[in-house]
């Protein structure tokens, strides 16, 4: 299998490892922007997009800064190669024509929201079937300076709105799994702020209020919480379900009903396996570019 990586940062390293876990004999290439780009073991650098047509890649991983995704994907359509796109798909919503072009060209796509492969959420999706929901609370808070050890967090794309960063979109996983579990809300209210001690220009706090027919979901996302917390609480008519994503557990009325030793890091290989099998068997359906664009609309569309 021959794979091209566009954007060779920390998240690309996770995708490369996932590919190697599944297909150890894979040939990995990276399209680099400068001739002085670092050489990484088992990755062959190429420097000209014209080489894409000649290399016959099986798929392309797009993991460059979010603000570059639109331009990158637009330039790749001509090759009709399957696209594995790091989340979020774009940083803006003016992409309806591009989404339609992907559809018209029948290009297989998957947008990497790996929490759909986390076992506690898979359990929860089945657990909530047939139950009356009264309220949903989703929280994701962690400390941005700890995300990428050895780097200046203020120089990362996450901290810079011009690169497509911000908690409201960088932490789109929470909005994505809300969409996956509960569907598209009928009404959306949101608050974005950047007033914490991090002093970055990207949004460091986001609050979404998602209205459904019978319940409301409250989603809080932030970059500044030092004691990381990632939880989903569902208040049913019969009781309360608490999903701890960091511990991979589910409790029902304070009793553990599911627990797993799986770590979030394990989901990168699972999603890559899904994608590779999907393009091999021509049956990709989970979180396509079109679906991811609907999730992005929840994040960014004007109220």
UniProtKB/TrEMBL annotation:
<dbReference type="InterPro" id="IPR055170">
    <property type="entry name" value="GFO_IDH_MocA-like_dom"/>
</dbReference>
<feature type="domain" description="GFO/IDH/MocA-like oxidoreductase">
    <location>
        <begin position="133"/>
        <end position="240"/>
    </location>
</feature>
<dbReference type="InterPro" id="IPR036291">
    <property type="entry name" value="NAD(P)-bd_dom_sf"/>
</dbReference>
<feature type="domain" description="Gfo/Idh/MocA-like oxidoreductase N-terminal">
    <location>
        <begin position="1"/>
        <end position="106"/>
    </location>
</feature>
<protein>
    <submittedName>
        <fullName>Gfo/Idh/MocA family protein</fullName>
    </submittedName>
</protein>
<dbReference type="InterPro" id="IPR000683">
    <property type="entry name" value="Gfo/Idh/MocA-like_OxRdtase_N"/>
</dbReference>
<dbReference type="InterPro" id="IPR051450">
    <property type="entry name" value="Gfo/Idh/MocA_Oxidoreductases"/>
</dbReference>
<dbReference type="Pfam" id="PF01408">
    <property type="entry name" value="GFO_IDH_MocA"/>
</dbReference>
<dbReference type="Pfam" id="PF22725">
    <property type="entry name" value="GFO_IDH_MocA_C3"/>
</dbReference>
